Q: What sequence folds into this?
């Protein structure tokens, strides 16, 4: 199954630009000749993205001096430049390349970068811009194949008189010109913004494990991602490398297609506003998280709460009335069970940590988002915090599968401290706070955690089609726009 949301877009644009097909014919050609199967949701998205890209391209103003009706021509070869000396073993030698969509003519080189979402207000990455315009100004056409792993073979070409970098938001056909200038101006931008970043990357130490590990071929040998065969209890690594989190598991239960479209990172729409209780829960979480980020660590105090709905608003949360009062009470209650209250001087706290582990037996990257990892003296603990109206009588591991994952991660020794890490649940309720130690090292708890997790993971892992499950799941799904079956819901 195709797993890069912009891959088919580029395949279709290649057919339009290099084989002169219309958009409609190119989409039809891609659908019949694509080497990899693709999800119907990806099909819908690709058609939308192609039309968005073409519409945005038409809106880009011509560079001054370019005659009307003589647009730039698409360029099939990538552009690259090689830095450092040409000696084979030079450790400072590296290559810089631009991919995406390339155009040239009238002494101009232009790169259009396709983004999934809107580019109207998206943040700018100045180092990425400087790198791209440096290659546009000084690059040469790449002659070697995309799949060759050795040094690139570069051809010749005339240096441009002007370079331009544009980004295009495929979801809403938006565009933004990021840079337009002479090669000298491009090199100046490169020198000021890129040098430091590239030096840092060459020196190493810039691994950032996260959601992208699920599509990284090097994850099995990454020094920052521990490998734990059998973590998920699945022995079948024949499928493609994928990533799994508790969110994936929950989404898959609601609708297999939704879990897949999440993995593709397709643009989302928020289908409905959060309920007041959900907003209150998020606001309480954010307040406590901010208190735990203080350095040096300080325990939360019972009176350090938002005093009023107005104060909630200043923090960016629309919490009013009963929910505001309940939220204030819950934050005050947290102070009674704050993990930093007893020995703040010997404690450290890491709110909202992401733990990434690779399970080679399942060929899956497991990503856990934890509410809080903290240490008091030499004891590490993972704490999940939930705001609930009342305590439920359900099995805690079943009710909160992230706890089951936490127990298995503690057992696998991938949580901080290297040794046993405790797992606990803090529930802030209408009638007071309750902290439960899950006894993560007990064999029967580990067995139960394994049972719970297998139920979430096994059917997802065995699936390669991700069928849609239209119905109730569509009501809160952010991907109905791209789903071929969601219309059934809105029509009935
Ligand atoms: Zn606290």
A:
């Amino acid at each position: 199954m195709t797993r890069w949301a912009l891959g088919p877009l580029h395949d279709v644009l290649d057919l339009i630009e290099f084989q002169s097909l219309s958009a409609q014919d190119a989409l039809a050609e891609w659908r019949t000749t694509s080497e990899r199967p693709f999800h119907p949701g990806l099909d819908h998205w690709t058609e939308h993205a192609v039309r968005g890209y073409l519409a945005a391209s038409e809106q880009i103003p011509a560079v001054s001096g370019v005659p009307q009706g003589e647009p730039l021509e698409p360029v099939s070869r990538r552009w690259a430049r090689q830095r450092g000396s040409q000696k084979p073993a030079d450790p400072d030698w590296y290559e810089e390349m631009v991919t995406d969509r390339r155009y040239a003519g009238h002494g101009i080189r232009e790169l259009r970068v396709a983004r999934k979402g809107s580019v109207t207000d998206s943040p700018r990455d100045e180092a990425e811009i400087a790198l791209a315009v440096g290659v546009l100004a000084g690059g040469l056409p790449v002659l070697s194949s995309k799949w060759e792993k050795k040094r690139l073979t570069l051809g010749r070409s005339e240096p441009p008189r002007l370079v331009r970098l544009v980004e295009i938001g495929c979801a809403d056909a938006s565009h933004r010109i990021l840079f337009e200038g002479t090669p000298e101006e491009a090199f100046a931008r490169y020198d000021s913004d890129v040098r430091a970043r590239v030096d840092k990357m060459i020196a190493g130490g810039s691994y950032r494990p996260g959601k992208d590990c699920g599509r990284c071929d090097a994850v099995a040998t990454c020094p920052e991602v521990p490998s734990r065969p059998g973590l998920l209890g699945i022995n079948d690594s024949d499928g493609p490398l994928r990533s799994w989190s508790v969110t994936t598991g929950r989404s898959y239960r609601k609708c297999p297609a939704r879990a897949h479209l999440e993995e593709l990172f397709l643009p989302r729409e928020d289908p409905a506003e959060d309920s007041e209780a959900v907003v209150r829960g998020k606001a309480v979480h954010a307040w406590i998280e901010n208190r735990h980020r203080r350095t040096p660590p300080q325990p939360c105090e019972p009176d350090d709460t938002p005093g009023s709905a107005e104060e909630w608003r200043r923090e960016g949360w629309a919490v009013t009335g009963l929910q505001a009062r309940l939220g204030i009470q819950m934050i005050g209650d947290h102070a009674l069970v704050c993990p930093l209250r007893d020995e703040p001087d010997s404690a450290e706290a890491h709110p909202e940590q992401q733990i990434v582990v690779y399970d080679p037996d399942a060929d899956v990257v497991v990503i856990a988002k934890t509410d809080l990892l903290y240490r008091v003296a030499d004891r590490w603990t993972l704490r999940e915090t939930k705001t609930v109206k009342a305590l439920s009588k359900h099995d805690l591991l079943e009710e909160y599968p992230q706890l089951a994952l936490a127990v298995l991660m503690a057992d696998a020794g991938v949580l901080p401290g290297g040794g046993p890490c405790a797992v606990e649940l803090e529930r802030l309720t209408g009638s007071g706070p309750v902290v439960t130690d899950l006894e993560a090292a007990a064999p029967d708890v580990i067995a139960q955690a394994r049972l719970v997790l297998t139920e979430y993971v096994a059917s997802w892992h065995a699936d390669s089609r991700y069928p849609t499950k239209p119905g109730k799941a569509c009501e809160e799904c952010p991907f109905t726009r791209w789903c071929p079956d969601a219309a059934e819901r809105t029509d009935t």
